[in-house]
């Protein structure tokens, strides 16, 4: 199932019920399982793509797959999508990469400006005559770095909502329908699912780091597969949050 072939489903409202485990309002299926031969194959391919992602091109099918995972989350489908229709998958991935670049452009600009300003301040600090000016420049640079951190967190939180809006319709323009995207992103349902997704990534990341250190790097190769799984869980939960915020029923 690819994002490009999905028609807009009818939007219906239903009452939210609290999960006893969390006391929060999350409806429907909230887990994705890589059990079974097809799912294991997807996990293997995904881990290899993560390993090869520094070569850039593997990012296209990888992001295309994440887009399909978001759609699975919207539909409440616990079975992970499979890697297939590679050209279409890569085209969808290219769309997702473009959306990612746009949403993370502001944090990138703040980071670059902050780095340049701090660098200039460090150079001027070597000259005693302008030490005061250098301090002021350093403060300005630090403010830009702080702004970059804040906007990175905001973009990380909002970006999956943009992907979900695009995955549901198949139209990249819907990723930039800001009233819809921010309307979902600042709902309680999306917030709860998003926090669960972020917590999953953080906890799995810590586990990866600890195991890699204690095995003297031997776990590093397996870590890419765990990282892929964590990202799949992340996007799936955000997809569920999007569906809950829009009142969409699981299929």
Describe the model.
- This protein is mainly α and 251 residues long.
- Helix content is 69%, strand content 0%.
- Helix 1 packs across helix 8.
- The N terminus is likely disordered.
Poorly predicted residue ranges: 1-26
Run of helices and strands:
HHHHHHHH
Distance between the termini: 14 Å
Cα radius of gyration in angstroms: 21 Å
Domain count: the total is 1
| Helicity, as a percent range | 55-70%
What is the beta-strand fraction? under 5%
| pLDDT averaged residue by residue | 83
Topology:
Blueprint (H helix, E strand, L loop, with lengths): L36 H16 L6 H17 L10 H18 L1 H20 L6 H39 L8 H8 L2 H27 L5 H27 L5
Helix pairs in contact: 1-2, 1-8, 2-3, 2-5, 2-8, 3-5, 4-5, 5-6, 5-8, 7-8
What are its keywords?
about 250 residues, mainly alpha, disordered N terminus
Write a brief caption for the model.
The protein is an all-alpha fold. Helices cover 69% and strands 0% of the residues.
């Amino acid at each position: 199932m690819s994002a490009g072939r999905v028609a807009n489903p009818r939007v219906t409202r239903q009452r939210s019920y609290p999960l006893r485990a969390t006391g929060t309002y999350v409806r429907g299926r909230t887990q994705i399982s890589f059990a079974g031969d097809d799912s294991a194959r997807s996990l293997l391919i995904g881990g290899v793509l993560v390993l090869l992602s520094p070569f850039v091109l593997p990012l296209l099918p990888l992001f295309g797959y994440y887009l399909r995972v978001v759609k699975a989350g919207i539909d409440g489908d616990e079975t992970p999508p499979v890697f297939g229709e590679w050209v279409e998958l890569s085209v969808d991935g290219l769309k997702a990469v473009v959306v990612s670049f746009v949403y993370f452009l502001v944090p990138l600009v703040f980071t670059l400006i902050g780095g340049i300003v701090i660098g200039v301040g460090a150079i001027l600090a070597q000259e005693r005559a302008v030490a005061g000016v250098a301090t002021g420049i350093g403060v300005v640079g630090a403010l830009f770095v702080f702004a970059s951190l804040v906007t990175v967190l905001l973009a990380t939180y909002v970006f999956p909502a943009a992907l979900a809006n695009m995955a549901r319709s198949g139209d990249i323009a819907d990723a930039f329908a800001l009233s819809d995207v921010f309307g979902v992103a600042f709902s309680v349902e999306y917030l709860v699912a998003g926090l669960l997704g972020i917590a999953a990534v953080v906890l799995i990341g810590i586990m990866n780091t600890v195991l890699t250190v204690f095995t003297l790097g031997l776990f590093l190769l397996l870590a890419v597969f765990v990282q892929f799984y964590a990202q799949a869980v992340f996007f799936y939960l955000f997809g569920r949050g999007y569906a809950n915020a829009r009142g969409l029923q699981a299929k």
